[in-house]
Amino acid sequence: MPIHEKSLIRPENLAIHEDLTIEGVDVSGHWSTFIKSRAVTDYNEAMEQEIAALPGGEYIHRCWQCGSCTNSCTVNAVNPDFNPRYWIYLIRLGMEEELLRDKDIVWQCVSCNKCTYACPRDVNPEGVMKATAHWLELKGHTDQKPSMAFDEIFSAQVFATGKIEEGRIIRQFFARTGQSLFQDWLLALARGLAKRLPVGLLARLGFAALFRPRTSGWGRAQAAMAEYLGEQQAARRSALGIEEGAKR
Amino acid sequence: MRPALVVGGGPAGLSAAHALAAMGRHVALVEKADTLGGAPILTGYAKLVPSGEWAKDAIGGMVRRVEGNPLIDIHRGTVVKSFSGEPGAFRARLSSGPELEVGAALLCTGFTHFDSVNKPEWGFGTYPDVVTTAQVEQMISSGRGVRCPSDGRAPDRVAILLCVGSRDRQIGREWCSKICCTVSANIAMEIREQLPGCNVYIYYMDIRTFGLYEDTYYWESQEKHKVKYIKARIAEVTSDGKRLIVKGEDTLVKRPITIPFDMVVHAIGMDPNVDNMTLSAVFDIKLEKHGHIAKASSYTSMCGTSRPGVFVAGAATGPETIDDSIAQGQAAAMAALAQLHGSVREAAE
User: pTM to 2 decimals?
Assistant: First the structure.
């Protein structure tokens, strides 16, 4: 491309009047094109602190932009837009709007940790990717992923009873993610159970579903976990300036 | 035995004078300012790299050691007007009148700070809150703290621009001044310690915190003090009437930046001493292409100049650290001693 700057013009920055006449001269369409400034006009110093407050993001300030993380990245090899080095830079200078352009690929990190071992400054880029994906979700920039809904239902049940009851997890997960309970594989499973009729197993399943037993002595462990989780979540909310009771 | 002439009372000159006197030599120490100590004392540096000692204590100790030495004659507020003769038998006439017979001369004449008005696009001299690293050193060493000169407020955001007066063909400075990266990291950490709410940004082309300064200054400033480094050469510093506006290109995001700052600090480089042309004429020595005093072969004639019997040490030969200037002062003293003894032996034979 003869003028490389042309590649930097973003469609949303083009301002064109479809119907414009100035002093009798018709300048409709691309004749009236203006390109809005790309200049960064301020740094948002809170952004780095917010990401640093989330687990994995603690060492983001160490980054000196060598690019070892991006060079070693498994996902970058497949998708060149997946660029941890660049995102770390955007976060450090608080270029939020720029980061949000990539909000739908940040979560693609596969946690292979090649970057963790390549980073000469121990930034822990893999942790930063996790923290960033988490930040995007906490701030409401990205929707909750189905896997996150599953994690929440699963852990809520463990916290409540100290054990899990698969039937209930499946029902709640399908309900929360708006999926039908009549999945082919589930129907096949039910038919198989009905054919073989394992009386003992069905009795235990029925008991667990009806009476929701708790692990004995679970109360104390539950209280300790609740206290710890409460502290962690409050710390994150306050670091990110999110109101109590808002989305986790 | 004739004394040695040491020109310049900074770190290199103080070190050379002390070393010569420690070997039992008489020394005439000529300093053009009224005070000994050179740039660290005359400019008012704060904490030195890498010791962290205050300049007035560290270099002050060197000054006291020289002032208390009976073998060293100190001529303050004095320059050498003429210099002639042969190695072992030079005559140096001082501006204060006397003509000295000396066996060797050591030029420890140092450097001159770059004058930032020569880069007018970066606002020095136009906006009061654009200052130099030398001025920030003074703010710290005076105990007044880092404040915006315009209204005395503590800055919320400071930009340090590296390579001001260095690595710039536009103004005929094609050298790296070597120390400014480390000094800037040092100052940035000092600001962050004094004003924890103040964010410090360093705009760089390359970071050259050489040797052991890498982790102790560059890494430390990032990791412990959260100083931010941005790869951008600033185009201009202007003002919106309230704050300074730093304009440039952030090369890593390929976007122009116009960022408001409370204070902009120029990391000024080391120019050849403004008196080098005069020194070159008086001592009949050559200057190298940048205007520093030219060294003879580094390998076979330690600290030599183009004229036998005249030696050079420290920042007179190019940008130099205080520690290395001190070491070179001692090396020059060693070279001068060898030459002085050689003259004595020749006379005896």
Answer: 0.85
